[in-house]
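Supplementary notes for students who missed Thursday's class. We covered one full example, reproduced here. Read the sequence, then the structure, then the short commentary at the end.
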Amino acid sequence: TEKNQSLGGPNSKSLTFSEAIFGDQANFRSTESSLEFDPLMQVALRGNDDQLLAMEDVDPDTPVLYISPNQDLKTNPIVPVINSAGVVSEWDIRVVPEQPVLVIGQNERLVKVPKNSNARIAVEEPCLQSATPYFSDGTNDYYFYTDAFCGGGGIGGTPGGGSGGGTTGCDRDQNSNPDKLDRAKFDSDYWFDEAEGWLDGKPEVYYILFTGASQPHLAQLPPKSLPLVDRSRWKDCGVFSCNPEWVYNINLEMFNWDPQLYGRAVVVWFYEYDPGDSESRTSSVSVKDAAGNTQTFSRTWTVSNNDFDLFGSPVDFCDDATGSNLKIYTTGRFQFGMTIDA
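Structure (token representation):
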């Protein structure tokens, strides 16, 4: 099909292939005249998580859905779908198709970072200082998501063993090893789908760690992304329903908790990343530690305006953090466990 050839014919709703991929060229074409594509667009295979195929096995008759980056799918869930004959119709994205479809939409694996430092998402800066852009144009740098959010950790698996907590004092008093994010899961299948629908593929979950430190650079630590794993790893589906599933052995180093520096309580706040413009968010959380002292965290931070808020949870220095008795925290939308190597 030619780039500017009309799809669908004169007697039906029609758009060009170029429009189907890029939308309005005034919005999506790079300022570089030599480039005629948006680096944040992609073609991906989507559908029922348990029925997805490899791209090389895609049927030639597989329909193509187009998701405009400007469309608010919450208020307008109807998108154009193009069949192999070039006929354009509509699809309600609230319905998961029985057969896989190809989706032209925004690439969440890349993070667009303006070259103008005043327009950057400030919280990313510590991660970007040691990262190399995958692609650059005249206005923006494009980083892999895991680089922009200091990604790391394992790939998930079965629960790891441990030696259990100490008999006296707090687990974290027994050694000086760093805290690690050990496991995570969504609180319900509802929150999983709200955070990352079937159209979007793997959830890009990251967290921001807020501490009681008096120094600004220690009061809010750089964000870190959880390992990217398939959607099926986050849930266990039976014949009639799906339930959240733990992703184990994440093994993502968080920080070395020195209570003299960070205080005896911290707050871990989670988001699911979606591309967008910078937006400031503010939250205030009061935490009472094991000694009965109340600490209030009032923080303002910057995220993408499309990021889905999974909320946060306080963590106390003396919470169990080793072996099978490590404490599980819930934000109401997301659950996680932190551990230290005994």
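Commentary. The first strand starts at residue 6 and ends at 7. DSSP finds eight helices and 22 strands in the chain. If anything here is unclear, bring it to office hours.
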